């Protein structure tokens, strides 16, 4: 799903939550853009985290003779 489509869905959800009031589409779109941007920032920051670094225990080979 692309950016505009995601924002459109968010704006529609806002419109529904605010009682389906017509004439506020620009306001709903602006709110939706802010929500979308925040979601992207959160997604990017969570993906940018480095995994915890620790020593990996070496496994000893069992002698199977």
Structure notes:
It is built from two helices and no strands. 60% of the residues lie in helices and 0% in strands. It is elongated, with a radius of gyration of 23 Å. It has 65 residues and is mostly helical. It has helices at residues 3-17, 25-48.
Instruction: Give the proportion of residues in helices.
Output: 55-70%
- Characterize the largest beta sheet: strand count, sense, and whether it forms a barrel: none
Q: N-to-C terminal Cα separation, in Å? A: 57 Å
**Total E-strand runs:** 0
The coarse overall form would be: elongated
Q: How many individual helices?
A: 2
Radius of gyration: 23 Å
Overall pLDDT confidence: 84
Observed structural traits:
single chain, 65 residues, 2 helices, 60% helix
Brief summary of the model shown:
By secondary structure, this protein is mainly alpha-helical.
What is the fold's blueprint, element by element?
Elements: H1 3-17, H2 25-48
Helix pairs in contact: 1-2
